[in-house]
Amino acid sequence: MDTTQKFTSPAYEFSLLRIDLIYAAALFVVAAVVISYAISYAPVDSVMVDPPLMGFFLVFCLFTIAVGFPHPSFGHVSFDRVAQVSAVLVLGPLDAALVMGLASFLYPWHRLRKGVSPGSVLAAVFHNAGLMTLLTYGCGSLYVGLGGVVPLGTLDWHAVKYLLVLAVTMQFVNDLGMSFIYFIRGGGFHSMVTLFTTGIELGSTVIAVLVAIVYVRLEPSIFILLLLILGAGMLFLKRFSDMRFRLEALVDYRTRQLRQKSRELQQQATHDTLTGLFNRRYADEYLKQQLSYARRHDVEFTVALADVDHFKRINDRFSHAAGDEVLRRIADLLSERCRNSDMIARYGGEEFLICFPSTDKKMATQICMELRAAVEAADWSSIVDDLQVTLSFGLASTDSDSRRTTILSAADEQLYRAKDEGRNRVAA
Q1: Domains observed in the chain
Q2: Strand partners, 344
Q3: 53 burial level (CB within 10 Å; 0-12, 13-18, 19+)
Q4: Residue 190: burial class (beta carbons within 10 Å; 0-12, 13-18, 19+)
Q5: Whole-structure pTM value
Q6: 155-196 pLDDT tens trace
Q7: Helix axes 220-270, 280-297, angle to 10 degrees
Q8: Contact (Cβ atoms closer than 8 angstroms) between residue 178 and residue 74
């Protein structure tokens, strides 16, 4: 798996890229030092014993990387495990590490033509080459150190046991390395393991064992035929994987659309489209619940009905569009000045309902007086020059026998009293 598909947009922050590049370069340097040390202490005839064969595995590795597919979270899943494991089983850990490191170094550069930034490509080059070199040499050396045979020509219980160790350690180190670079790039630390990609990686290991045995034991023509079949299979799996992830992306997109539509429908069912406040349907249900709560817990509950004074005149004189803008501005003023615990609804054409849970009439009256003053003092000239808007309020509180209709009727009576007494006032 390599690492240049996510986090490469123009919005990629420079600081993250710098940290990413420093980490990748350090990993590459460590890999180079380890391999140099291994070459210097290895027998002369054990390094690059067959350059043409190494060249073949280099091409094979580049092909297995190229026929990969995007990881659902981050990066690029490829079939390079086939070339990686088969190279270890045919060439040995050191030569296999050189081949894998070189292939991983060469492959990401083509993405410069796709518009990926040079810094991101360079980070991927260093990271992929460093990780694949250390992974191949380290896990391959563990396999050989435990007693694994190179080149592998037969399968028995001991060989299977060592191959399982090779497969598991490669998978673990690869997933750990990819998770860490994902963390470095600002994506958080979480497992990169998915059932599908893990199945691809482990299946590739089984195929790699078959490739190694066929190369050692059978005729070159059969080996070539096997490679052709494998290549066709990889291309088929790539096509299948691309289709699978496109379908998953489509399903995810449709799911987000459905959720958004559901939120919109819920918003429409409970909110007023003009002001964005709660609507009458929601307010009636809220009143029912709060009155029940007030009775059970013996707490006060106060409501206020507010009405825009002379609203019909505003519509008739300045147009209904101006009237709508007045209602929106009043809704904003009420929302800004009421408490988070209060509920505000557009209850009628120019009428608003404000509910004050666990609040006595004195406190609610004070809040309404502040709201009335804020509306009166607001600058309405942005809607119409010389426009003056005021509100009248009527309040009522619960008692032990309160019901929704009675408390609203009491508030409405007080609102009419405020109107009769000259408007632009609070009556409780």
Answers
A1: 14-259 (1.10.1760.20), 280-427 (3.30.70.270)
A2: 354
A3: middle
A4: exposed
A5: 0.56
A6: 888 899 999 999 999 988 888 887 777 776 666 545 555 676
A7: 80
A8: yes
